[in-house]
Structure prediction request, 83 residues.
Amino acid sequence: MTTADREVPSRESLAQAALWYMWTKLNIDKSLIANLNSIKREFALIAAGAVAVSLGGGTYFTLLEEAKKARTCVSSCLALLSK
Prediction:
């Protein structure tokens, strides 16, 4: 089986898995702050995933695109310095 033949999980199932994982980390013996502290990484991952999906699903952040942006930035900075 190649990677193209594998079924990609839907966003809903990934979100459900993240929420289930967060739910299992909650504990009524701990305070609210301690509970929120135990799942802060998951909140950050969900937010980062939402940003990546809203900006093209990760295709915008490929190595080639980052190299192009860096090259453009460096050339514009050098142009400003040479004036």
